[in-house]
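Mods, move this if it's the wrong board.
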Amino acid sequence: MSSREDVLSLLRNGEGFLSGEDLSRRLGLSRAAVWKAVDALRREGYEIEARTRLGYRLCAVPDALTEPEIRSFLGKTAVVGRELRCFDRLDSTNSYLKTQTDAPDGTAAVADCQTAGRGRMDRSFQSPKGRGIYLSVLLRPPLPPESLPPVTALAGVAVCAAVERVCGVRPGLKWPNDPVLNGKKLCGILTEMSLEAETSRVQSLVLGVGINVGQREEDFSPEVREVATSLLQVLGRPVSRPQLAAALLEELDRAYAVLLAGDLSGYLADYRRLCVNLGKTVQLLPFGGGPRETAQAVDIDETFSLVVRGEDGRQRTVRSGEVSVRGLWGYTE
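Not the wrong board. Structure tokens:
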């Protein structure tokens, strides 16, 4: 760790004031180096009180998506988040991890801002600075490609669990992969897989999650405002982004372990409970155009595909690569 991180760790875990002499002795730093570290932390938004003969005391921490802040909330994970890379700005956390060919399984990238955030079908995902959590995880599962389509659904369940842990509210899931609150989209999830050309072996799977945390209504463009919301808008109070990012990494780690083990029954049951479409009339929107179809959403099958009953009374299964769904009168309803 850097001297800045060392000083922050001692201040965070200390009770009351710590003298400059004590910090210097415990860290093997000069008093000048301690002062420089404190000054750097203050410039990053940490409120550090200094008193003559007493020393330094950490009073408040910024809502920062930095490694020290996220790790202060992060428990021990088996794979996901063991390597954590934090950035002030990236074009896209997914795009960044796709270039990291030597990064180990479970490497996570977090950005305070994305300049080219993406969703499914290359749609833009608005990622303003200081407002959301933009996080991607690089996975290298030793599994065949056909076993990986449920990954996005598992991630949706993980997002809902993390939000409930930190905020006390449980989002629903709009099939196939949108966590929602109050009938509006709270989060976007994008999964991208890379295969070896000759063998079709999975080289990597990048799972990206963008959660709207502190956006106000005016932070969304007019067209997005109609379908999107944030935790701030729903709860009426701020939510710690580093705490939520840590909870998300822990929940993704649990989901990854279940994927590797092969028994998805628990997550399937959770997904069915969370799915806001079941029992409702939905519109099926074919990708690539074509007429919309009205149907009744009746079940989620074992591949996390949607079972619908058409107006002719026949049931069939639709997959996320074929259609999207929307309510008759709004995003989910």
